Amino acid sequence: MSFNDILGQESAKQLLQNALRRQAVSHAYVFSGPAGAGQLETAVTFAKALFCTESEDDACGHCLECRKVDHGNHPDLTRISPDGASIKIDQIRELQRIFSYRSEKNNPKVYIIDDADKMTVQAANSLLKFLEEPQMPAVAILIAENGQALLPTIQSRSQQVPFRQLDPGMMEKILVQEEYPAVLVRCAVHLASGLEGCRAILNENWFAEIRNVVLQLGKESLNRSGMAMITASQKVFKSGLSEHLDMLFNLFHLWFKDMIYVQYGRQDCLVFIDQSEFISGHASARSTSQWVSCMDLAAECQKKLRYNVNGQLCLEQLLMGMGEAPE
């Protein structure tokens, strides 16, 4: 992979390639932005470019140095990710031990820390000392969804490289070309920030099932007959789909937003593209403010779920709120 193979993120790529051309590479970078937007791919490509013997500002992919990175056995590249829920001080100490050895061919040593915002306080303080006093030339790449969660002293000693969510239309085109079902792709690109995240969703068998359940619940809740409660019990909590309630709430958010799109004549923006006729015929069943209230309720129920409130209670609260008679 070279910089040309990374989708979007032109500003980030330009910043890094300019540093390579000017031989002004910083000793530390923070790649911050939504998960899956290409931070890891860019970090590995940047490391390859630093080692590459053929290209000045990119990774050629053919030289021995690039091939070592591709095969995961380059001795001067180390990658750290959370051990359980966090990155611990022992992992940073092990990194320091590895970096006490000489590099090959006078390369800088490069380390990539995934989810760097999950470092414990002790690990972060240990890393700070390492950033300030490396034993040899080194380049740190810290990947963090929330770069502001890092110690201010780490932030101040690092160059910030912001990453942005990839354009959904761009991802949709690529994924449809890869022969993923178009109706599922249209949802996935609004649920993940990058191609890998979309593919991970699309490769799950339950994703199509839970999308169908959301459609059924969304339709049944409009007639306020109580059927939605029965459907939720049978098709969510007795089928194993209850493990994916977080995704269910995300999909409901998109369903409500589609209703609002129709009210504003933006059918071209619909996510549930196979349901355009139904949505167009029922969007007026609620006012815009009521659909917004439904979105707020879905977010509130999702928040409760993440705070370990009983999942069935969270979903029932949403369905009851959706089924209330219009004002």
UniProtKB/TrEMBL annotation:
<keyword id="KW-0808">Transferase</keyword>
<protein>
    <submittedName>
        <fullName>DNA polymerase III subunit delta</fullName>
        <ecNumber>2.7.7.7</ecNumber>
    </submittedName>
</protein>
<dbReference type="GO" id="GO:0003887">
    <property type="term" value="F:DNA-directed DNA polymerase activity"/>
</dbReference>
<dbReference type="GO" id="GO:0006261">
    <property type="term" value="P:DNA-templated DNA replication"/>
</dbReference>
<dbReference type="InterPro" id="IPR004622">
    <property type="entry name" value="DNA_pol_HolB"/>
</dbReference>
<dbReference type="InterPro" id="IPR050238">
    <property type="entry name" value="DNA_Rep/Repair_Clamp_Loader"/>
</dbReference>
<dbReference type="Pfam" id="PF13177">
    <property type="entry name" value="DNA_pol3_delta2"/>
</dbReference>
<dbReference type="GO" id="GO:0008408">
    <property type="term" value="F:3'-5' exonuclease activity"/>
</dbReference>
<dbReference type="InterPro" id="IPR027417">
    <property type="entry name" value="P-loop_NTPase"/>
</dbReference>
<keyword id="KW-0548">Nucleotidyltransferase</keyword>
